[in-house]
Every structure is written in structure tokens, then in C-alpha cells.
Amino acid sequence: MVDSTNFFTQLNGGSSQILGLSSGINTQEIVQALVAARRQPAVQLESKVTANEARLEAYSELTGLITDFKASLDGLRGEVGFFADSIFDNKVAFTQSRPTTTAPGGHVASQADSILGVSVTDKAEPGVHTVEVVSLARSHQIRTDAVADRSASLASQGIAIGTFDVNGQTINVDGDDSLLDLRDKINASGSGVRATVVSASPTQHFLVLNAEETGVINTIDLAGGTGTSDSLGLTDTGAIKNELQAATDATIRVNNLGVDVTRSSNTFDDVIEGVTIDLFRAEPNTEIEIEIENDLGTVKESIISFVDAYNALKDFVDDQRKEVVRTEGGDAEYGPLAFDTTLRSMMTQVDQLVGRIIPGQPTGAQTIGQIGIELNDNYRLEIDDDTLDNQLLTNFQNIRGLFEFNFESNDSRVTLAGFNGQVAGQVDASGNPIPYYLNVGPTDASGNLTSANIQTTAGAGAGGGADGTTTVNGQQVTALDTTGANGLRVFYDGGASMPGVDNIEVTVTRGFADQLFYVLDRYVNEQGGGTISENTQNIVRQNDNYNRRIGDIESRVELFRARTVARFAAMEQAVLTANNLSESLSSAFESANKD
């Protein structure tokens, strides 16, 4: 472009022209007007680029909202594959202490958390258990006799040189080894014993051996000759001489079974399934009540996150459709996505799901509205805390079914490997879930399936022959779009060289959170794809095209401007020549008249 003022034009190449001085015409304004007219297509394209950039920014914000929305649904949609967890499986444990029924009068129970700690996994079943800690597991500790100088050689202090074994590992005591050297050799031996030098006074030093693990099974074993170990004071004719602490096992009493439960460790993780008990101290006559419950707090937090994410998305949509002043000094306008068909289609599907009945659910838990999540007058979701809390306490499994994807099989060899958003459960005329029927062929010597099929009715597909309803890859079977199970992936662990199995029932139900997750996943997914990503890429390509066209127009306009300026310059030159000729003639005429 050019920088210009009236009657003066500076060209991009650095040359300049003074226009209009001879003709008196404001040629600069004329040039600008002509150039502006020629640039009008570029101006229109620039407006499109600006509008597209606003759409890209809005799509970026929308993508973030959808990503957050999907994250809020992740736990609620259940255990949807090998490595996915369901928050409905989460458990929490509460403890309290009290005297046992046989405790002597006046016994005061200590706080539960000072006696033991409890952690639970999703394998734990809700229920109440009692634990009495009778004794703790302790590690074995022994010591040597006192040595006067810990740094001087043991030989110089009367200790016999030789070897002895610690838990089967041979320790060599050389002539120049000190007590500190012996410590280091034991610690490097891999015997499962830690050695420490303890100094009682400047002339009394002891080597203390401590088993790394607790329990009677980890008692320190000294063998391999007694000369050196006896001389050190670890043994006396082969028997342990200075025992500081005997190795003991931990003992607890569980649920008043009348049987003591002992372990070599103070951690009990195999007594109650899914429950780990860590003992801190023993306190006979005190029992700890451990109550295991479903983690209702986490479930409710996830539901609140889902409601917040839905409302944030609705706020965004309403803002896009609202006519307001969006730029300082600008006019009222709608948002960049106000009339976007992608956004409209997605919200239609989302809003339809919010009020949808979930098949197979019992009366009172068929929609999210029935459990206390309702639309208010502003079409935002709102939680009735009393209703939701009561439902979580009394109808936990029904709420679970309302939200999550569920897979069940009547054959333990079949487990869920995964699925996509197209799979649909079967229901009967009353809306109750009914199974698909998986038929598998024989397995080969590696345990891989040779063929399989999936049917909607029992008895069909007997023998597990391939019929186009599934694909088989090793032990995994994937349903194809010939049935409603399309995209369902199951893992069959039937063993090597086993015969086929017919009519394995696999039942699928898809709750509200799972269905909603896949609606959103079509628009934004973890792989960076989806409809919105496609739209964004199209807009970027469109803007690249627009900018190329704008560049072409700018080049042509600049050529046009240069030619126009040149024409006006030529005109000015002609006018100047004419004016000069006119002035010369006038002067000659005046001179002639004077003569």
C-alpha cells in the first residue's frame, strides 16, 4: 500500500509523484477511491477470515467444555474395559474402638487409629468386622559382647579370626577387620540382616544385628562354625548368646471367630478380601469395629461435577445465541456459533438424553430426575440434596445402573475387553434387559479361538462357526454391525485345545452417563478427532485459501494503483505543458501588443 497526502504520492518503490498541482484536481482522493473499489473483494474476504477466527476461538472454548464434560462422566460410566475403574466400586472404611465383652472392669479402650489402620480396595464388600490386636510382629535382634575399640582390628582385641554364616551367607572376618568393617560386610551380604554399631561408652561398642523382616520365620540364623561367632559374643557354643528381642508373629482375633489369626508381618491383607489392616500396637481386650461402606461421597462429587459441566455447556450455548455487544464500541451481535449446525445437533442429542428413560431400570430410578437431578426454569440441572442423598443411601445399586455401562456373562471365562458407542443392549417387550448369545469354536494349542459368532437368540450359531457376526483375534471376539452388539469386545479364556461352547449369555446395559459420554465423544475424542476437530480443520483450510486470494488481490491492486498514478502523472504533465505553452503564448502576445 502507500502512504499519501493530497497532491503527493510516495510509491512502494521509493519514488514519488506530485499530483494535482497543475490540474488543481485532488487526484490523490480519486486514486484512493479507485484502489479501494478494486480492494473490495479482499475486504470481503478479510471479513470472512475474521469471522472464521472468531469461530475457531469459540470452537476451542467449546472443545475444552466438552473435554471437561466427558471427564466428569468417566467414573460414572463404570468399568468399561480392562483398565477402567468405576467410582461405584470405591469403598471407604470407618473404625471405632470399644472394650471386648470379656474385658476386665475398668478397661478403657484406646482410639482405634492408634491401634491399627485400615485401607480398602474395590474388592471389599460392604459390611462390619471386628478386630482385636493381641500381639505385634517383631523382628529378631541380637548383639555381640562389648568391644573396646570399634576402629581397631578385632584380632588385636582378642577376637578369633575366621568365618560364620548369617542366614546362610558366609561372613569372612579377616585379621585387619574392625568392628566397623564387620558391620559393612554383614550389610553387604544380602542376608536379610542389618548390622549397626552402638556405642555405650568410648570403650564399649556393640554390634547389633536386626532382622529386616518381622516374624518367627525371620529369626536370625547363625551357623557355619562357632569359633568366631562365640568369640564375638554372638553365640555361646553355637546358641544365641545376647538376644535383645525375640522374633514374634502378629496375632489378631477377627469377628469373634474363636481362632487366633497369626502372620509374620504387622500387615494383614489376606484375611478380609479387599481389606488391608496395618497394626500399630497391641491392646488386648479392645476390639476395633471396622465398617466398610460404598464411597457415597465420591459418587456424589462426581454427580455434582457432571451437573456443573452440563450447566457450563448450556451457559456457553446461551451466550452464543444471545445478541449482545461483544466488542468495545461495536454493535450488538450473536456469538460465532449461534447458528452452528454442529453445536445445535450436539445439544439436541444431549438434551434428549437428560430426560430419557433408561431401559431395565426399576421404577423410581429410570431417569436422573427421579433421583434428584432436575431441570430448573432456566433449563439448567439442579440437585435436590435431600432426594439424592436418600437415593444414594437406600438405592445405591439402582443409581449405579442408571449411570453406568454394565456387562455380565454367565460364563466366568468371558470378560469385557471394551466397546464403542454403537453397542446397544437387548431388551424384551417390557424393557427388561435380555442377553446376546455368544458361541465359540474350539481353541488351538495356544488357547486362541478358531471361530466365534454372536446371536440375538439362543440356539442359533451352534458350534461357534464364523458367520460374519464377529471377528476373532486370538482370544478376543469383536461383534460386527450385523447385530445390536456392534463394537462389543470380549475376552475368552477357555484354555488350550478345548472344545467349543454354545449359548454363553452376555448382557449389556448402557446407563445415562455412558450414553452421554459417547454422544460427546463423536464431537471431541481423545485421539484429537471428532466432528468439531473436522470443522476446525476445514475452517483453517478455508482461511488459508482466503489469505492466498487476498494476497493475489493485493498484488493486482498494487499494479492497478501504480498504473493509475502513472496515468494521472502523465495527465498532470500534459496539463503542465499546456499551461506552460499557454503562459508563453500569453507573454508573447502581451509583448507584441506593447510594441
The SS-based structural class is alpha+beta
Strand content: 25-35%
- Order of strands, widest sheet: 4-20-6-16-17
What would the average pLDDT be, to the nearest integer? 91
From the spread of the alpha carbons, the general shape counts as extended
Rg, nearest Å: 43 Å
Please give the largest β-sheet.
5 strands, antiparallel
Helix segment count? 10
Give the fraction of residues assigned to helices.
Answer: 25-40%
Note the gap between the termini: 56 Å
- List segments where confidence is low: pLDDT < 50 over at least 5 consecutive residues: 1-8, 10-18
Query: How many strand segments?
Result: 34
Description:
The structure is a single chain. With 595 residues, this protein is α+β, with helices and mostly antiparallel strands. The chain is 33% helix and 25% strand. The chain is built from 10 helices and 34 strands. It has a 5-stranded antiparallel sheet with strand order 4-20-6-16-17. The chain has a 4-stranded antiparallel sheet with strand order 10-11-7-15, covered by helices on one side. The chain has a 4-stranded antiparallel sheet with strand order 25-34-29-30. Strand 13 (235-236) and strand 14 form a beta hairpin. The longest helix is centred in the last third of the chain and has 64 residues, at 531-594. The radius of gyration is 43 Å and the shape is extended. Mean pLDDT is 91; it is low at 1-8 and 10-18.
